[in-house]
Amino acid sequence: MVAERVALRPEQLERTGRGLRAQSHPRSRPRQGRPFLRTGVLRFTFRRARVKPELALRDRAQDFGKGDGPQFKANLTTIRNKSPNCSEPAPTRESAGRPQGSVCARFSDKWKQLSRLQRNVILFVLGFLILCGFLYSLQAADQWKALSGRPAEVEKMKLEVLPALPAPKKESAEPEGFADILSQKRQRHFRRGPPHLQIRPPNTVSKDGMQDDAKQREAALGKAQQEENTQRTVISWRGAVIEPEQATELPYKRAEASIKPLFLASKIWKEPGPPTERQKGVIEAFLHAWKGYQKFAWGHDELKPVSKTFSEWFGLGLTLIDALDTMWILGLKQEFKQARKWVSENLDFQKNVDVNLFESTIRILGGLLSTYHLSGDSLFLSKAEDFGKRLMPAFTTPSKIPYSDVNIGTGFAHSPQWTSDSTVAEVASIQLEFRELSRLTGIKKFQEAVEEVTKHIHSLSGKKDGLVPMFINTNSGLFTHPGVFTLGARADSYYEYLLKQWIQGGKKETQLLEDYVKAIEGIKAHLLRQSQPRKLTFVGELSHGRFSAKMDHLVCFLPGTLALGVHHGLPADHMDLARALMETCYQMNQQMETGLSPEIAHFNMYPRADHKDVEVKPADRHNLLRPETVESLFYLYRVTRDRKYQDWGWEILQSFNKYTRVPSGGYSSINNVQDSHKPEPRDKMESFFVGETLKYLYLLFSDDLELLSLDTCVFNTEAHPLPIWAPA
Ligand code: DMJ
User: Fold this and answer.
1) Who is most buried in 8, 88, 168, 408, counting CB within 10 A?
2) pLDDT tens, 594-637?
3) Residue 642 CB neighbour total at 10 angstroms
4) pLDDT (tens digit, 9 = 90+) per residue, 373-410?
5) Catalytic one among 180, 213, 385, 599?
6) Is 492 a catalytic residue?
């Protein structure tokens, strides 16, 4: 082929920007929109495929000569002589020089006889198959690495966490109570998200002994269920501490056997005075939300208030668990009692279901732990311990950075199907809960696993003045997709938990504090700007050096976190920033027609008469009943006592009532915060509306600084209060 190209006469060649190409040919004028066909080589390849044999000969002769002149005729004769029978494939430029009749030559000639369409289809199919093969090999390599690269320590932990060895286990052989959590009946498999994103535990986990001994578990099931049926309901209402030894509860005997809480509840709870008028407004809103949940979604994950039904995410009564401590705090005795009964009788974690480690930790583990602390009821601690153990397989990765998902029934943990990355915010915002679980149960592994993650991230390179990228790989333990920095989704609570862990631990872990303070400086240096015309301070995003004036509503947790830091002695300039950002978050609500913030706002940075400070793109106009603005208002009010923050919160509650309340019960997220006539309910009440949003509003409207005091408790990222550890 190269030789034949050289055979083209110099006048047939012209220079192009991309090298030599054949001169335009009468029959091969460049075609519009297909510049790649202009090159001589490609032209030969594509054109020859569609002509009949005689035409092909003529064609080939033209390629060697020009037009119908003597040169053309001579070429045609030469070629005919070489191919006396037109039914035989004639030699082509590409096949000339190769031995005739060789497999290669025959294949080549066959190929050239195909039409362009046929060739393109074949090439496309081949390309697709190669791509599939490549992707499959990548995934297989990842899994292989994950399996072969597990350090001995991780393997050891796995055995402890997943007691699936065929030999029966004695209870005493498992001092830290990891035994038998899987020895119960497999149940219906709930999965998160749309079907194509679902991740199934493989059928081949038998090597790990995780699914093989199903029979053994079936046998154990009867026993476990019997035990659960023997539970009796004892309500300890608001502050009454039940000594575990004295408690009449018998939930999950096995788990209870290891429950010897080192610290009991009640330190964070002090009985409040009567509710203020605004607090009564929150109670009324909660009861309305609860009415919908009770009627249409009882025991299910989320209420769909418009269609009067429910949706499942984990199939674990998510809203009910998330709301337990809210009911306690709001003084809703009957509702709490009924929910407690459901937990006692119906909450069973032995389910073949994938849960997201982060979401289930902050909502379920956090909710159970805080409810234990408020009520002193050991049922909640035993459930928390059982659930915590079931999450532990998530940490069995080569890097010890946990997988995003874990099946709480089988113990199979994994990344999402499309990547081996986890989200930085997710792996770095489970520490408060696991640390507290260790403290209460004495089982050190919970704390060790999450602190390993914190230490690892602390030592990683790839940060920008304390700011972290959004993804981290579970195999390598390195940040991935570097160079993108945000305080919004996928990074937000990493920063929040640096501060809150430091507070939880009694302000002794100075590395956490250093990382937090450094990150705030990083935010100031790289992400802060002011909008026009009102000069609102906002936190944007940075992507490979390019600034984007985009701020998620999620970022509105930041003013509250900054204020909390100042309450605990951090620099006063953090408070200046907290106030400025609080004003911005309020404006993100107030400038919308419904008075409710969009999911994402864009800030106008240039003075233009017709532009407002906050702009919203059509895809970002929804409001999911999120708590971040009112969460920060709560902290700002606690720290400053400036009543304007209460007023702002009250306005937001009125807006929720006006635009998101569903008459038959419940509140719904909406599609369009900019249309007060048609906000379009999305038919979903997220569990955090009752777990966080209404709780923070209730606390905001209290003037009692001792009601869940910032000096005795720290709220996890789902608003579940946990105690600050007293100095040892
Ligand atoms: C909650 O689950 C938590 O607050 C989490 O940190 C962020 N997302 C939601 C609320 O918006």
Assistant:
1) 408
2) 999 999 999 999 988 888 999 999 999 999 999 999 999 999 99
3) 12
4) 999 999 999 999 999 999 999 999 999 999 999 999 99
5) 599
6) yes
- 11 catalytically annotated: no
| Range in 12-26, 118-132, 711-725 with the lowest mean pLDDT | 12-26
Contact predicate 559/632, CB 8 Å: yes
Write the CB contacts of 204 (distance below 8 Å, at least 6 apart in sequence): none
Half-sphere exposure of 298 (CA within 13 A, CB side): 10
The one catalytic residue among 109, 492, 515, 683: 492
Phi first, then psi, for residue 605 (nearest 5°) are -100, -5
Q: Cα separation of 150 and 147, whole Å?
A: 6
From ligand 1's centre to the CA of 562, what distance in Å? 17
Residue whose structure tokens are 């403290």? 439
Instruction: Give distance in angstroms: CA of 719 to centre of ligand 1.
Output: 9
Residue 115 has pLDDT above 50, yes or no: yes
> What is the residue-averaged pLDDT of the chain?
76
Measuring from each residue's beta carbon to the nearest atom of ligand 1, which residues come in under 6 Å?
Answer: 493, 554, 626-628, 688, 692, 717-718
**Environment class of 291 (CB within 10 Å of its CB; exposed 0-12, middle 13-18, buried 19+):** middle
Residues 6+ apart with CB under 8 A from 415: 403, 404, 405, 421, 422, 474
* CA–CA gap between residue 211 and residue 215 (Å, rounded): 10
Locate 292 and state its tokens.
Answer: 């919908």
Residue located nearest, by CA, to atom 6 of ligand 1: 717
CA gap 16, 479 in Å, rounded = 44
Burial label, 287 (beta-carbon count in 10 A; 0-12, 13-18, 19+): middle
**What distance in Å separates the CA atoms of residue 394 and residue 285, rounded to the nearest whole number?**
37
Instruction: Evaluate whether 265 touches 243 at the Cβ level (below 8 Å).
Output: no
Nearest alpha carbon, ligand 1 atom 10: 626
